[in-house]
Amino acid sequence: MHKILLAFTILFTHTAHADNKLSVDVSIDQLTFQKPTKGVGKAGVLIFKSANVNNNGIILNINNVNNYFDSQIFVRPTFLGFTTQFGNYGFSLEADSIINSLNQTELKNSKLVLDDNQLNLSGEFFSFINPDSSVKLKTFRLYCQSSLSSASAENTVDAPSNNMMENCFQFLTLNGSFAPNNEAAILQYEGIDKTNGDKNFLEAKVKSFDLRKNQINANLISLKSVSNDTYTINATDFNLNCAKDEDLKTLDFDKIKKACLNQIKIAPTKVNIIDKSSKSTFNLDVKDMTVKNKIVYLAFNNGSLTDLSSTTYLDKLLLNCKKETDTDLFDLTSVLRDCISYSRFNLQEVKSTKPDQKDSSIKNIAFSSTNGAMIIQAEAKLLGLKARISIYGNVALNESKKQLILTVTDTKLPLGINSVKLLMYFLKKNLISKDITIINNIITIQL
Fold first, then answer.
1. Quick check: 92 and 17 in contact, CB under 8 A?
2. Residues near 303 by Cβ (< 8 Å), separated by ≥ 6?
3. What residues are paired with 210 via a beta bridge?
4. pLDDT (average), residues 311-328
5. Mean pLDDT computed over 130-149
6. Dihedrals φ, ψ of 140, to 5°?
7. At residue 65, does pLDDT exceed 70?
8. Which end of the chain has fewer CB within 10 Å, C or N?
9. Average per-residue pLDDT for the chain
10. In terms of pTM, does the model score above 0.85?
11. Which residue from 236, 239, 237, 233 is spatially nearest to 210, judged by alpha carbons?
């Protein structure tokens, strides 16, 4: 056996300088890989059940009975080698090979099929770790394929890339078909936002996730997103379709998020938002959310905002609001900046409750803002009468203090009364949130 393996090693070495066509089918018990500091040296271990390798027509089939072929991994920039008790074998690599892009990775109880047309990886556990980000998968199947087969691509300028990782960003499917009756894959992502230094964590129970040339589709049983350990978003039955940069070639979370949040559609879902810094919780029953042509469209059935002193209930909201290309929908301050320049919304009812105080309710609210000029109309009880009132003024954002400031300049009240002072008196009695202060004709909302 040692002589046979040595012969194969010589043949592999002989072809190391040729144009390399490699296909691999391997069942892996455990793989650990840590890129050496200088890119050369020992890099981990490989423990596998069986391996079928075709290197330029030279075929190597191994059944790893009694773990004779458990291997120590050795790398150089253009070579991947394995050391066993029977001898050494290895493969030449292109300079831009996926191996050279790895920093740290681990596989458990997995099967890998890799050739010119596909990367098909399923397993119990997988991790891909770089200095500023990490991706972990559990009970998953990940499938990538070339955008075109070699035969159909020979006479076209859109020939598929030789780099399978680039192909994955053009055609990728992730689901839970690691084993029969396994409903979902578990995805975890941790990274640092390059634009603002925020630490991001995302965990999803993935029924299906698809990357295509210019589109992302996801069907998630559950989703959890955490920013800087303070701002948490939880969602269930989360389905989305959004745009993707056609030129995406690396796992650039910021680039993916930017393209997606500028053209996205989210199906009905329930969302829970927790802000540890303000000690508040926001629950939403979302009917629809769409971002298209620099406008956010949002409809929800109901929602509630709870802080330390009160709970505010919202019923049936319709909103459309401007969104600039660079605005992050997860950044409330940025969103409000855009909405001040243009927004329209209708809310059927807002009701606040506070212990030991009478509930307040305002119905059929319509709000519009254009370049900071605002108009608010609503049905409320004033002077003992239920009537529609109108409020005119300006809205501004103090970003440094994270405050939304409404300045009331005129009103239309029941019985033909136009009195800003009377309106502010009414609002002081009925707006019972600790985050709202009223001084003269100015309403300040702490974000």
1. yes
2. 282, 283, 284, 285, 313, 314, 317
3. 173, 217
4. 91
5. 83
6. -135, 165
7. yes
8. N
9. 83
10. no
11. 239
Buried b (16+ CB within 10 A) or exposed e, 403-413: bbebebeebbb
For 32-35, which contacts have Cβ atoms below 8 Å and span 24 or more sequence positions? 32/105, 32/106, 33/73, 33/102, 33/104, 33/105, 33/106, 34/103, 34/104, 35/75, 35/102, 35/103, 35/104
Residue 432 confidence (pLDDT):
55
Residues 264-297, buried b or exposed e (16+ Cβ, 10 A)? bebeebebebbeeebebebbbebbebbbeeeebe
Mean of pLDDT values over 153-160:
39
By three-state DSSP, how is residue 432 classified? coil
Tokens of 297: 């469209």
- Tally of CB atoms within 10 A around 101: 14
Residue type, 41: G
pLDDT tens, position by position, 424-438 = 887 777 665 667 888
Average pLDDT over residues 314-322: 94
**Alpha helix ranges (H) inside 127-283:** 150-153, 164-168, 253-262
Two tokens, residue 252: 């650039």
Helix (H, G, I), strand (E, B) or coil at 111: strand
Closest listed residue to residue 125, CA positions, set 64, 187, 207, 35 = 187
CA distance 165 to 152: 20
Q: Which two tokens stand for residue 162?
A: 């030789």
Provide the strand spans (E) within 115-227.
Answer: 118-130, 133-145, 172-175, 185-192, 199-212, 215-227
CA distance 432 to 358: 10
Which single residue is written with the structure tokens 């598929």? 160
The tens digit of pLDDT for each residue in 215-225 reads 999 999 999 99
**331-382 residue pLDDT tens:** 778 899 999 999 999 999 988 776 555 566 788 999 999 999 999 999 877 6
Report residue 439 as tokens.
Answer: 């001084």
Judge contact between 33 and 73, C-beta under 8 A. yes
Alpha carbons within 13 angstroms on the beta-carbon side of residue 18 total: 13
